[in-house]
Amino acid sequence: MLAGRHLARALGAFLFSWLASTAVGQAWRIEAVPEAGIEFDAPSRLERLPMQLGDASLYHRARLRPKDDADFVRAQYYWNCDVYVFSKKESADADADLPEDMPAELKEQIKRLMATMGSKRHRSFQSWLDEVKEKQAELKVVTAGKKKRGKSGKLDYAHWVWVVPDDYGPAGVSYCEAAVFDFQDKEVALVIEMPLESKNQKSPKSKWSNLIDRIIASGRELDPDSAAADSDKKRDKYADTPDKQAALAAAKANIQGLQGWDYFTQPNYIVIYSWDFEKPDERTKAKKDAIFYSERLEKMRELYLGNYPLDATGTKAIMPDPKSIPSLDGPTTGVSTAAPAQADAGGSDGGEGSEPPKEKLGTVRFSVFRLCATYDQFMKYGQSPPGVVGWFSPSSKELVVFLGGDQMMGKGATETVTYHEGWHQYADFYFDHPERTKHDSLHRWFDEGHGDYFGSFRWGQSGWKYVGSDMRYSDCKQMVRAGDYVPFKEIVHWDVQRFYSGRAPYYYAQAFSMIDFLRRGEKSRGWDPRWGTALDMYRKVMLVHGDSKLASDTAFFKFTDDDWKALEEAWKAWVGSPQFLNGK
Fold first, then answer.
1. Hey, what's the torsion of the CAs at 530, 532, 534, 536, to 10 degrees?
2. Which domains does the chain have, with CATH numbers?
3. Which of 172, 306, 381, 527 is most buried per CB count within 10 Å?
4. What is the DSSP code (8-state) at residue 104?
5. Is residue 177's pLDDT more than 80?
């Protein structure tokens, strides 16, 4: 009996200890969303993701998602906690629904998108949900705006519950619950979307419903002082012009209130970096890595500039003389065939007594370089397919990489990807000249080939050293042996769809080796001087005309079948020679 009492006491002590440790593991935090003016309780393992820069959602202001599978439904299906804002302003001003700190250029993109789509502007959550229901007829509203009184300083709210088939989760049905807070100038909706585990369920299991109940009822108005902008002069050091300050304000707003995210500035980049928000000790290492890669990117930018220089203002490329571009239907020298582009570029003075054309000014681009700490975070943010460790977005202008690229793909991979995608970011700026009259995208052979070319440099004590591409070397050798490369006269005109098809890695390799040869093969046997001018001629035409087909046609001016064959044979000999480096 005595032994039994001791055992019971020991088990009780163990149970108390276990419950205490479990409670700690299920800790909560206060999540502030300054863009919406609210804060609420969130489970500690619910990770807030940055909204993608350039996201065209008018109403979406925040998204939180479980950090890993352990907090997914059935350890497999994620759930979302979102915050939406609906402006009550009836003004004709189309900016009424957009955050005040959103860059003007992005506002214009969203307004154009809305005009094209003909979307209705929503002044309330109910209006928004009604439109969702129109598109998804099977959506069933269970609770429609039932008034709830907030307790202990929390906000009153309207309670909404609905269920919608969405082909996601174990049952293909999601349970949605919302608290809608009514402010003088806006409505703010805190929304949770949870996949149900059975079609017979009316609501999630208690494990999940307890979480939902606490989150939904926890909304509080955010103290304006807590949302004040960070004034850290050291971090903001390089935001030294109005344009840069505006770009920095938008970037800071993107991560404001997010745990595990911070920023600093470099001369040409806004650097945003992250760490595991549950492991604050990792912040120092994450910052150190971000400084390393951003400083290398600054050095690489000097290499971009050396090959593709900007004018004295640093806001645009130096416009070439249109007379240096041959006419495809005339002599090999002479004026450009496109008169409007000539006039814009200063090719004509307009006659005696006329005023010279005014110079079109560019703008300084203060680009975002974002470094994600975990691959899961990187994939969630960019919705990237497996295997991708970096990307550049032409719409948002940001460069995003995964800090663990070396562990995934081998030593130096993160640098290679940073320089490759950094080229895309720089080229997007360089070729977006204010004086060109057409705005075609660069051909992939030129753009991706240059990305791999710049990715083949390494920084050392003596500066930059070209080492070649370990990633592309084997494929280049194989295509020369097998002869299964794309004929040059075809690939220089390929559009995005053909290049990014099933054999895209092979096409990347060919594009890289073409750029490598045209840039470095001048001393090879049988070199034709025309090959050495092809890349620069492509550059000139893209700046003056912005016409990619014309650029490739002019770069390989009057090439016959024999000329193309000679170029391919010389390229094959180059790839087979010791001068074609293996990236080691």
1. -130
2. 27-227 (3.40.1000.10), 229-316+361-435 (3.40.30)
3. 381
4. H
5. yes
